Amino acid sequence: MPGVAIIGAQWGDEGKGKVVDLLAEQADVVIRFQGGNNAGHTIVRGKDVYKFHLVPSGILYPGKLCVIGNGVVVDPAVLTDEIDGLRRSGIDISGLRISANAHLIMPYHKLLDHAGEAKLGKLQIGTTRRGIGPCYADKAARLGIRMQDLLDEKILKQKIYAAMEPKRLMLRPFAKDPTLDLHAMTEEYRTFGHRLEPYIADTPPIAWQVLEENGLVVFEGAQGTMLDIDHGTYPFVTSSNPVAGSACVGAGVGPSSIHEVWGVAKAYATRVGAGPFPTELDDDLGERMRQSGGEFGTTTGRPRRTGWLDLVALRYATKVNGLTGLVVTKLDVLTGIDPLNVATRYLGPEGAMFDEFPYHQSILHKARGDLIELPGWHEDIRAARSLDDLPETARSYLDYISDFLGIPVVMVGVGPGRDEMIWTGASERLRPAAA
Ligand code: IMP
Asked: Ligand 1 centre from 200 Cα, in Å?
């Protein structure tokens, strides 16, 4: 069985958690490889709704190996809370493993994230204020504190001192903030260390072994391609690489370990925070999509911007990730919107037209989607479990997307529930017995 990467093909919030949850049943290990608690995955199981920020979505299967990889940045306060919550719900988390090399979000990272955004004023990125950017910055500057440092008080204190010292000037407005006391911070993080120690591990060998034994490894992406720090709409991006190539770095495996790359995209588009969004609908229809799609952030509760499906950006994501299949989620949200629109190219100022995703920020900021109309449908599609159960116009919508991108649609979400999913022929072999 293969290594399968599940990647956000838009601006995040595509519904990757549900896909990973479904595949996790078959998987031998699920590995998160980037991002931190800026992500939020919601899993609906019957009447229960679970929200995760750091723990991989497979954790609801008792004893399932779920790895937080070295590429993830971990806020230990959030992780210990999440672990406590899972324990209170009676969930077996014995399969949780945290890479000893994963970097830690520290109190000063959160303060710097707030301060950085405040300083940018109107130009702000709209970060989740979780300290993600400053943490990755310290990692690159080789001033990061890693999970393994929690296990040695002396090293921990030295490293916190070394990391905080160069930031004195930027942290001056927070001089009286009690969380910035070196001794108290060391003590607090030592306590986190005691609590997390049973889960801290050398994680790449876990993936190697499963792959050697022909097991299934699911690489769980967070955020989305258009938020990638290299390939997204910089600087309105996150500080990690949500693209498929990053699964190797963030989990510790080689490219040959990833056999399938499935991009997850909503049947329309959303984005949280600032930055270009060529198909944005700033009108009643956009509001209707927001309400019927429940488009409010899992992590921050912020209303998401909504718009038509952007096939220019999606074809770019197909290339950048080497997608082998597309999962289309929330198709049901489009029920009753007729006609539907999709963008097949961009229009720039002075009549310029772009068939491909433009690399230049000035063009991208002004680009508007050149829309074509496709017929919609009015029938309730939530009971559909095969493509044949869908109205013909819904099938043609999916066919149009698949033809445009040149990859098959492998799954289609028709409602929030776990069973409200169509598995197409292409995904059948990874379909869990229960789905
Ligand atoms: P940061 O990751 O908190 O630094 O935020 C940078 C940008 O990425 C902001 O526009 C956020 O709204 C966006 N972002 C970060 N994580 C997510 C996510 O999980 N879903 C959607 N947007 C996200």
From this structure: 26
Mutate to test the pocket of ligand 1, among 6, 16, 38 (most ligand atoms within 8 A of CB): 38
Question: What number is the average pLDDT over the span 260-264?
Answer: 97
Tell me the per-residue pLDDT of 134-148, one tens digit each, with 9 for 90 and over.
Answer: 999 999 999 999 999
Tokens representing residue 311 in the block: 């096939």
Q: Which band of pLDDT confidence, cut at 50, 70 and 90, is reported for residue 32? A: very high
CA distance 398 to 409: 7
What's the distance, CA 354 to chain centroid?
28
User: Residue 384 C-alpha to ligand 1 middle, in angstroms?
Assistant: 32
Pairing of strands 73-74, 103-104: parallel
Helix ranges, 220-330 (H)? 245-251, 284-292, 311-321
For residue 400, what are the contacts with CB-CB under 8 A and spacing of at least 6?
A: 342, 374
Look at residue 179 and tell me whether its pLDDT is greater than 90. Answer: no
State in Å: Cα 370 to ligand 1 middle.
Answer: 26
